[in-house]
Amino acid sequence: MPGGAGEPGTRVVLRPLATPLPLGFLGLVLATTVFSAVQLGWIPPDQGRVAAITAIAATVPLQLIASVIGFLTRDPIAATGMGVLAGAWAVTGLATLTTRPGATSAGLGVLLVTAGIALLIPVGVALSSKVVAAAVMASTAGRFVSTGIYEMSGSPAWKVTAGWVGLLAAVIALYAAAAFELEGTRERTVLPVGRRGKGRAAMAGKGPLEPAELVEEAGVRPQL
Questions:
Q1: What is the pLDDT of residues 27-45, one digit of tens each?
Q2: Which long-range contacts (CB under 8 A, 24 or more apart) does 102-107 make?
Q3: Exposed site from 10, 62, 143, 196, fewest CB < 10 Å?
Q4: What average pLDDT does range 193-214 have in this prediction?
Q5: In this structure, are residues 49 and 102 in contact, taking their beta carbons and an 8 Å threshold?
Q6: pTM of whole model > 0.85?
């Protein structure tokens, strides 16, 4: 931006980065759908190994990429939420691979319940800017908690509940991925994503671009 008379000008160059949310949400769809198929008895219990491999080889890398890009774009929903999801799916996949088909693990259950509670932090942040993203995180939190309770109790009812909640999370994640993908490619909202506050302002091209406000931005201020 140009300075006043006799003052040097300052040019701000921004690196174009796409939203990482569709990538992370589609990664979620892959793992939660296959695990739900096992929990609901649609495929044999020994196919849990396929679900575990899906989580480790597909979902975790995709969500780690989404988390890193989230940090680069200063999107706390993608950065924190996808990071927690990647870690939880990695442990779930490894635990499933190393136990016999159909077995439960109280330790895994505690981890999943804790991960579900941890996801409530990005959910709370997302509610003030992107409601649909918050819905994905909230449904996934429910998926983790219900699965965790099943792992700790061995209750068939909780197993079925976890499967259906997992499918609900997959449906919401598919919608959210499509909505954010269309919004990014067409540069306008096509499917509602529930943008509010700063989320709506960002889509309208409004933001902290004044010099006095830029000083407070992450990467500009001396300490995060």
A1: 999 999 999 999 999 999 9
A2: 102/45, 102/48, 104/150, 104/151, 104/152, 104/154, 105/151, 106/151, 106/152
A3: 10
A4: 55
A5: no
A6: no
